[in-house]
Amino acid sequence: MRVLHVAAEIFPLVKTGGLADVVGALPPALAALGADVRLLLPGLPAITESVLHPRLVWQGGPLFGAARVAIRLGRMPYSKLPVYIVDAPWFFRRPGSPYQSPQGVEWADNLQRFALLGWAGAHIAGGELDPAWTPTVVHTHDWHAAMTCAYLAANPAATARSVFTVHNLAYQGLFSQGDFGQLGLPSAFLHSHGIEYHGQLSFMKAGLKYARRITTVSPTYSAEIATHEFGCGLDGVIRGRRSDVSGILNGVDTAVWNPATDPSLVAPYDAQALEGKARCKAALQAQMGLAAQPDAPLFGVVSRLTSQKGLDLVLAALPALLAGGAQLALQGAGDPVLEAAFQAAADAHPGRVAVRIGYDETFAHRLIAGADLIMVPSRFEPCGLTQLYGLRYGTLPLARRVGGLADTVTDASDEALRQGSATGFLFGAATPAALESAIARALALYREPARWRAVMHQAMAQDFSWAGSAARYLELYRVMTGEPH
Ligand code: ADP
């Protein structure tokens, strides 16, 4: 089984969210199961600088306005998987994120940049760019790679089957319909059955319409996106593909997220020897300027600060949290209004609320290890990774019952506590009152250390490693192609 993964970011080189974690971990997990896996990535600075032994396999142009485009084949650092790079310096050698300038403004030529990525995916699949290797399955991730599916549908040379994974339906890659001519696609694609979306072009819709199979990153999210509430305007399109849509949970990179071996921690620990976790908590309190109180329940947040993540609810519930004797440690970046609000909360409650604005991978490990709970009160959550990290680190998730959060956390109801299946705390409505009641339940359990520890043990025993999820993807590929593994 030859599989090409097409994506715009990959951990640890370029990361704006969980997508990068998945693209970094799933392909090696598939390779470990015997698949012949390659990657296709844009030639962003961090990628071109890190890929090992790149060699030219194709060059041409002009394409989408780039005078010269080269396709290079090298190997990923770390996983050593083969990787094709779309080397188009005009488009990709820029500072900032893959999608935005350092000032947070979308790059004006994202249509051309990600059309080129998709074009390259479809033409590698057609054997036109590297005749030495053609995939049987092309697996594309989010809107940035979705045009691969449209170009595949338009490329008679390509027989590969396509999978499109929706990591977050809220980011859709919408562009002006007037730019359709730049895509080089037949006019039939500019149709409501194609990539036209209410007078615009939608790259997300290219994936939803033209991929052979659609997956999302959790079973619950795959059902949610077919509803008006979670469908972001595309629920009708998704309902039209219902029998082709399925959900496969993300896994955790257990080499990167392992409290027993994590080099970021002041003291390693595991479920059998939890003393290290208390040292991690003390270190976190000291580093963040929180009062050195080993018995104060410490709530943590590591998150992008966007309305999706529901952190305004945490601000609203903060008085209740503090009244219960708890502390809050947050690391996040994003919406300036939320950044300022959390900063103000920290200023108002020194020693009890601590905030780090910014993105810091190492500190995220320390925060998740040192906290007692990790809060994920998302309005919607395709899968969510931080709650999975929390489970592994014995840091109980307190999360909203949506998407992948509902699929991965077992609420500490009386019955689940009795049965020994509880792993965290879930709440339903996206309201401060519902969050406060989950906080109250968490605080009550925290005051019963033996029962709290039992839930920690249950959480740490959960297996969300990639092997299981990768096997599910491989099965999907097998069903699509009729090939054995
Ligand atoms: P999303 O992709 O919607 O942001 P996920 O939970 O799927 O949410 O993945 C988020 C990833 O980004 C996790 O690996 C999390 O640890 C990381 N992350 C988010 N914000 C920060 C931050 N400020 N510093 C470090 N890591 C962060």
**How widely separated are the two ends?**
6 Å
Q: Could you say which small molecules are bound to this protein? A: adenosine-5'-diphosphate
Q: So how many helices? A: 18
User: Could you tell me the mean pLDDT?
Assistant: 97
Question: How many β strands by DSSP?
Answer: 18
Residue fraction in strands: 15-25%
The CATH topology label of the largest domain is: Rossmann fold
Number of individual domains: 2
Q: Record the strand order, biggest sheet.
A: 3-4-5-2-1-6-7-11-12
What is the CATH class name of the largest domain?
A: Alpha Beta
Computed Rg: 23 Å
Shape: globular
Q: Any overview of this molecule?
A:
There is one protein chain. By secondary structure, this protein is α/β, with parallel strands linked by helices. It has two domains: 2-251 and 466-481, Rossmann fold, CATH 3.40.50; 275-460, Rossmann fold. Helix content is 38%, strand content 19%. The protein has 18 helices and 18 strands. Strands 3-4-5-2-1-6-7-11-12 form a nine-stranded mixed sheet, with helices on both faces. Strands 15-14-13-16-17-18 form a six-stranded parallel sheet, sandwiched between helices. Helix 4 (110-125) packs across helix 5 (142-154). It is globular. The model has no long low-confidence stretch (mean pLDDT 97). The structure holds adenosine-5'-diphosphate. Adenosine-5'-diphosphate (ADP) binds at residues 17-18, 21, 168, 302-304, 331-333, 359-361, 364, 383-386.
Comma- or semicolon-separated keywords:
485 residues, alpha/beta, Rossmann fold, 9-stranded mixed sheet, 18 helices, globular, binds adenosine-5'-diphosphate
